[in-house]
Write a structure and sequence with these properties.
heterodimer, A: alpha/beta, D-Maltodextrin-Binding Protein, domain 2, 5-stranded mixed β-sheet, 18 helices, about 45% helix, B: alpha/beta, Arc Repressor Mutant, subunit A
C-alpha cells in the first residue's frame, strides 16, 4: 500500500524519514513516498485536495483547517503526534547585548529572560520585530505566551512577521528582525553563523509542549482505516528508534541529506541529544527533553493541546468564539484512533484524553474549566 | 467578458512564468495587473496595489509570509483569504495542481474570479509543459553526449566499430533493464576510474 506524505525540512520530520528509510513502514506493508514541501500553506492545500494522504503538520494548523480560518473548512485530524519540543527563541547579538545589560544570562530561566527583554523594550523607541514560521503554529503561540507573561505586548511592543525557516538566519544577520521562534536546527544555525543567541528553548516555557503532528483529512482516515493504523504503528516504532541515543549520530546524517532537512549533520545530532550551543563559541549546554520523539507519551494526540491552541486563537483574535467550535476542535485530535491502532504496540497509553497543561509562569490550562467557563 | 476593473497582483520569482500569465491576463482584457518578483517590501507592494485577487507560485516559500499578512488584517486595507466557501474546493484543486495559489478579497463573488483563475491555471499549466519539454530536451542532449563518449571508449579499448559499440551498450541495457544512457554513464565512470 502506497502512502504519500508531505513534509517540511525540520528536525521533527525525523519519524517520517526513519519510518521510510529504516524498514518500519515496510514491516507494516506500507510504501511511503515522502514529498518535501516549501511552505506550510502548500502542505495544507495538498492535504486538503488529496495530493498527500497525510503530512507533517503544525498542530494548530489541523485545528485551523477544521474551523476554516483563512481557508476552506475541511475537517483535518491529528491521530498521532510527531514528538514534543524542539523549538527555541533566538535573538540578534544586538538585542542580546541590550538584554544582558538588563539582567539576562545565557541559559537563564524564561522568566529572567522575559523581564530583561521587557526592560530592554522600555528603553527603546519603536517596536521590535520577531519572526515565526506560520500564524497557526506552536511557535507563534509559545513566543506570544512568553512575551505576554513577561509584560511585553506581542502586538504593540513587537511586530510579528512570518519568515520561512531557511531565510531566518539571513534576516537576523541583515537586521531585518531582532529575533525569532523556530524549530531546530535553525536556532543552532544562527548561533553557528555568529549572528544570534539562543535565549530559551520553548520546552522551558511550556514543559512537554507539543509540536508537529501527523495530519490527514478526516475523510481519508475514514476511507483508509487500515492504512492509517499501519502508518501510526510504523511511525510509533520509528519514533522509538529516533529517541534511542545510539541512533542519534546515524539519524543526524540521515536527516542532513539535502533531500530531507539539508543541514549540517552535527547540528542535527546535537539538537537530537539536547546539546545546544547558546552563544557563538560557547560550550554546549545539556537540555533534557529538548526534543522528545517518543518518551513521555510524546506521540499521543492530547485533546488538551487542540483546546489550548483554540484558546490562543481566541486570545490573539485570530477567530471569534462560537460555542459549536469547541466540539469541532476536540474532534480534531484523535486519541481514540491512537489507542485503537497502538493498543498492542505502545506501553502505557493514557486513558484520559486531556491533561492540565502547565506553563513557566505558574499559569495552567485546564480544559475542563475552559469549557465550562465559556 | 473580462472585468477590467479588477486589480490583480501576481507574486512570482520566475520571470518567464510571470510574463506568460501577465500577457494572458492583459490579452483577456484585465488591464490592471501588477507583478512582484522580489520579496523585498512585499507588504508595501501589496498595500500599494490594493489587489482584489492575488496569485503566488507554489514553489515560493514566501507563500506563508503572504498568508500571515492576510491574517493580520490591519496590514492590508481589505481582508483577503484563500477561497473560503467549501464549494470552492474544486477551484483550489485545479489551482494547486497547476502550481498556483490564489487569494481573493473577502466578499468578491466567485463568478467574477472564475475566469481569471481559469486563465491563471491554464497559463501555469502551459508553463509547466514548456519547462518539462525543455528539461526533456536538455536531458536528451546530455544522454546523447554520454552515449557518444561511451561509444568512443569502447571503440578505442575494444577495437569495435561505432555500430558494434552501440550494439554492445544496447544489449547491456536490455539485459540489466536499464536505459542505454545509464549504461553509457557507467562505462564513462568506469573508464575514468581505471585511468
Amino acid at each position: 500500500m502506497k502512502v504519500i506524505l508531505g513534509f517540511i525540512p525540520l528536525l521533527d520530520c525525523a519519524s517520517l524519514v526513519v519510518a521510510a528509510e529504516r524498514g518500519f513502514a515496510a514491516e507494516e506493508g506500507l510504501e511511503l513516498a515522502l514529498v518535501r514541501e516549501t511552505s506550510w500553506a502548500n502542505i495544507r492545500d495538498r492535504v486538503v485536495v488529496g495530493h498527500f494522504d497525510a503530512a507533517h503538520m503544525l498542530g494548530p494548523m489541523t485545528v485551523a483547517s477544521t474551523l476554516g480560518i483563512g481557508h476552506v473548512r475541511v475537517p483535518v485530524i491529528a491521530p498521532f503526534a510527531l514528538g514534543l519540543g524542539g523549538n527555541a527563541i533566538t535573538v540578534s547579538l544586538r538585542l542580546w547585548e541590550q538584554m544582558v545589560k538588563e539582567g539576562a544570562t545565557a541559559g537563564a530561566a524564561p522568566a529572567v529572560q522575559a523581564s530583561a527583554l521587557k526592560r530592554a523594550v522600555q528603553r527603546r523607541s519603536g517596536p521590535l520585530t520577531f519572526a515565526m514560521v506560520y500564524p497557526f503554529s506552536c511557535h507563534n503561540y509559545e513566543l506570544r505566551y512568553w512575551l505576554a507573561a513577561g509584560g511585553v505586548d506581542p502586538d504593540r511592543d513587537v511586530r510579528l512577521v512570518v519568515i520561512p525557516p531557511p531565510f531566518l538566519v539571513d534576516a537576523l544577520r541583515a537586521g531585518q528582525i531582532d529575533g525569532f521562534c523556530v524549530g531546530e536546527p535553525w536556532n543552532s544555525v544562527a548561533v553557528q553563523a555568529g549572528v544570534g543567541t539562543i535565549v530559551v528553548p520553548t520546552t522551558a516555557i511550556w514543559p512537554s509542549s507539543p509540536e508537529k503532528v501527523l495530519g490527514c483529512r478526516l475523510e481519508w482516515a475514514q476511507r483508509h482505516p487500515k492504512q492509517l493504523a499501519a502508518l501510526q504503528r510504523a511511525l510509533y516504532r520509528a519514533s522509538v528508534w529516533c529517541e534511542n541515543r545510539e541512533n542519534h549520530a546515524e539519524l543526524g546524517k540521515l536527516l542532513g541529506q539535502p533531500r530531507y532537512v539539508g543541514a549540517p549533520a552535527d547540528l542535527l545530532h546535537r539538537a537530537l541529544s539536547g546539546q545546544l550551543t547558546l552563544t557563538t563559541g560557547a560550550e554546549p549546554v545539556q537540555f533534557d527533553d529538548f526534543f522528545t520523539p517518543a518518551g513521555h507519551n510524546a506521540t499521543f494526540p492530547w485533546v488538551s493541546h487542540a483546546l489550548w491552541f483554540y484558546e490562543q486563537m481566541l486570545r490573539w483574535k485570530q477567530i471569534e468564539f462560537a460555542a459549536n467550535q469547541v466540539a469541532a476542535v476536540r474532534a480534531t485530535y484523535r486519541p481514540d484512533l491512537y489507542r485503537a491502532a497502538l493498543a498492542s504496540v505502545a506501553p502505557d497509553i493514557p486513558v484520559e484524553d486531556t491533561k492540565i497543561e502547565r506553563f513557566f509562569d505558574g499559569g495552567t490550562f485546564d480544559p475542563r474549566t475552559f469549557e465550562t467557563q465559556r | 467578458m473580462a472585468d477590467a476593473t479588477l486589480r490583480i497582483l501576481l507574486v512570482d520569482q520566475n520571470v518567464t512564468r510571470a510574463s506568460i500569465l501577465e500577457e494572458g491576463l492583459r490579452e483577456a482584457g484585465y488591464t490592471n495587473v501588477s507583478v512582484v518578483r522580489d520579496m523585498q517590501n512585499l507588504l508595501r507592494r501589496i498595500v500599494d496595489a490594493d489587489p482584489d485577487v492575488i496569485f503566488i507560485d507554489l514553489e515560493n516559500p514566501n507563500r506563508d509570509v503572504l498568508e500571515q499578512m492576510f491574517q493580520v488584517s490591519r496590514c492590508v486595507q481589505r481582508p483577503i483569504a484563500m477561497f473560503v466557501d467549501h464549494s470552492d474546493t474544486d477551484m483550489i484543486r485545479a489551482a494547486v495542481e497547476s502550481g498556483v495559489g490564489a487569494y481573493v478579497v473577502d466578499g468578491l463573488r466567485k463568478e467574477r474570479v472564475k475566469s481569471i483563475l481559469d486563465m491563471a491555471v491554464s497559463r501555469f499549466n502551459a508553463f509547466s509543459q514548456l519547462r518539462d519539454e525543455r528539461d526533456r530536451a536538455k536531458q536528451e542532449l546530455e544522454d546523447r553526449k554520454t552515449i557518444e563518449r561511451a561509444k568512443g571508449i569502447l571503440m578505442k579499448e575494444r577495437g569495435l566499430s561505432e555500430e558494434a559499440a552501440y550494439g554492445l551498450l544496447r544489449k547491456a541495457a536490455m539485459n540489466e533493464n536499464r536505459r542505454v544512457a545509464e549504461v553509457a554513464q557507467s562505462v564513462v565512470t568506469a573508464a575514468r576510474l581505471l585511468k
